[in-house]
Amino acid sequence: MILDAVGIVCGDLKQSTKFYGLLGLEFQSAGGPEHLEATTPTGLRLMLDSEDLMKKINPDFVKPTGSGMTLCFKQESAAEVNKVYDSVIKSGYVGTKAPYDAFWGQRYASIKDPDGNPIDLFADLN
C-alpha cells in the first residue's frame, strides 16, 4: 500500500491555495475548479476540495470540526523555517508557536491554515 494523497476540505479555496503556496506548493485544477492538486517533491499529492464539491458528492456532507492530524513541512534549514513562518504571519495567517529550537534537535514552528488545520514547519538543526 502507498499513501498517495491527503485531501483537505476548504471553506475558501482561494485563501487555501494562497496559504499553501506560501509553503511552496503549486496547485493545478484536477477535474474542475473545485478540486485542486499539488504534488510535493516526494510525490505525495495534497488535494484541496471545496465544501460545495463535497456536498455535490454527498448531499449529507457536514464539514468536520477539529483535527487530530497535523501536516508537517520539512524545510531546507533552520533559517528557512524562520523565513516561511514570517512570510505566513505577514500574509495574515495564524501562528500558534513561533520558531524555536526543540529539544529533539529540530527548528520547529506551528501555524494554522485558513480552515484552522494545524501545520508544522521544521528542519534539522545539524
Walk me through what this model shows.
The protein is of the alpha/beta class and 126 residues long. It has 2 domains: 53 residues, Signal recognition particle alu RNA binding heterodimer, srp9/1 (2-Layer Sandwich); 54 residues, 2,3-Dihydroxybiphenyl 1,2-Dioxygenase, domain 1 (Roll). 24% of the residues lie in helices and 36% in strands.
What characteristics describe this protein?
126 residues, 2,3-Dihydroxybiphenyl 1,2-Dioxygenase, domain 1
In short:
Pfam families: Glyoxalase. The protein is α/β, with parallel strands linked by helices.
Helix/strand-derived category reads alpha/beta
Q: Under the CATH scheme, which class of the largest domain?
A: Alpha Beta
Give the termini separation.
32 Å
CATH superfamily of the largest domain: 2,3-Dihydroxybiphenyl 1,2-Dioxygenase, domain 1
Radius of gyration: 15 Å
CATH topology title of the largest domain: 2,3-Dihydroxybiphenyl 1,2-Dioxygenase, domain 1
Chart the SSEs and their pairings.
Layout (H helix, E strand, L loop, with lengths): L4 E6 L2 H10 L5 E2 L5 E5 L5 E6 H7 L13 E4 L3 H13 L3 E8 L4 E7 L5 E7 L2
Parallel strand pairs: 1-4, 5-8
Antiparallel strand pairs: 2-3, 3-4, 6-7, 7-8
